[in-house]
Amino acid sequence: MIDNQAHSVKAYLAGVNLDDPNFDYSMTELANLAEANNFTVVGSSQQKAENIVASSYLGKGKVAEIKDLAQGLGASVLIVNDELTPVQIRNLEHMTKLRVIDRTELILEIFSSRARTKQAKLQVQLARLQYELPRLHPSENNLDQQHGSGGSTGGGFANRGAGESKLEMNRRTIGKQISAIKHELKEISGQEEIKAARRNQSQLPKVALVGYTNAGKSTTMNGLLKAFGAGNEDKQVMAKDMLFATLDTSVRRIDLDGFSFILSDTVGFVSKLPHKLVDSFKATLQEAKDADLLINVVDAADPNMNQMIKTTLEVLDEIGVKDLPMITAYNKADLTDRNYPQIEGGDLLYSAVDSASIQALAKLITTRLFSNYQITGLRLPLTAGKDLAYLHQHSRVLKEDYQADGIEVSARLSPQDRARFSAYQI
Ligand SMILES: Nc1nc2c(ncn2[C@@H]2O[C@H](COP(=O)(O)OP(=O)(O)OP(=O)(O)O)[C@@H](O)[C@H]2O)c(=O)[nH]1
Ligand SMILES: [Mg+2]
Prior knowledge:
single chain; alpha/beta; Rossmann fold; 4 domains; 7-stranded mixed beta sheet; 4-stranded parallel beta sheet; 15 helices; binds guanosine-5'-triphosphate; binds magnesium ion
């Protein structure tokens, strides 16, 4: 565990640049992640190279240079821009005399400190244990370390045998914890009420807010809820100026004029999001996979906007979201000098805290989701209670009139539902 809550610890950053055009941006991100973890970033170095050095990530000369610079600036921690092997971390710590933290551990740590619900906590714990498992080392008393009570016990040759059996025990314990958590997560997602809620939700079109962390997804959800919350206006989600404020998925029904859909808000993205983390957040990200329309919320006031868009598209690809219709929603226009709200092509420049913007977003969603829906008149037999219930769940029923020979209904129907009820059309 990274323990820097009591006072801000000074950290030095380092990264290997393998001729990556986005390298500078990834270092900016690393600094933001470090600061989100309460570190004070005092300096940063990069090494241009063709390969990562297998034993120590950075080359020897660079390590010596960083050691001097970091010490001169009073840093006690070195944060590196990639996920390192256990050997690389140990060697770097040995060579620099600094505590070395890699990008994955940094992100895991932020997720740990933000997790509030049981599901989020279990998902983070799972990712953390999976990260730690291959990093157990015979010379380290890892489980003690995990509970914050000790560091390396520095196993020499003499206690190697004891160390190895301890290692086996630690591996077994972590392995058991991993299966227990997987089991518990499965149970949570299998709970009947959640399943029932999903079934109900699946009747209406689904829209998912996705995007880079801190772009304004939750604020956008709150704006739509406030204006069109269908009686759930007070079910606002948490929006906050920090990385990864949201770690769960919230799902709400939105009733626009004549149209309804299900809106979800979920965890934000960052580049090089650790695979294990993406993997353990599968359930949370499911909503985005099931969506009929994605709203990619972008911070239009951030100079790195284009890289953030690229990052979001990469993460979506990684979680298997492909070829879904998408609106790019350029948020925080109030922090730019441009006029808003403004619809351009299929996209929107807006501010999530501006009500005219929220109306424009709603209109755009309507156009994209419901353009081929039509108001349809039906006459159902009086015995068609099931059909009527279906219509209420799947569409917006605008009129329902009981007459002697049947129920006259007017509803806004998708092409599929128009075909389904064609026999009853009037
Ligand atoms: N000025 C301005 N600030 C905004 C706007 N939209 C959101 N914010 C602020 O941006 C910060 C992040 O907003 P959130 O809605 O929490 O962002 P998010 O995308 O849900 O972030 P994560 O859940 O952390 O990934 C908050 O401080 C919001 O108040 C906007 O249109 N204008
Ligand atoms: Mg959020």
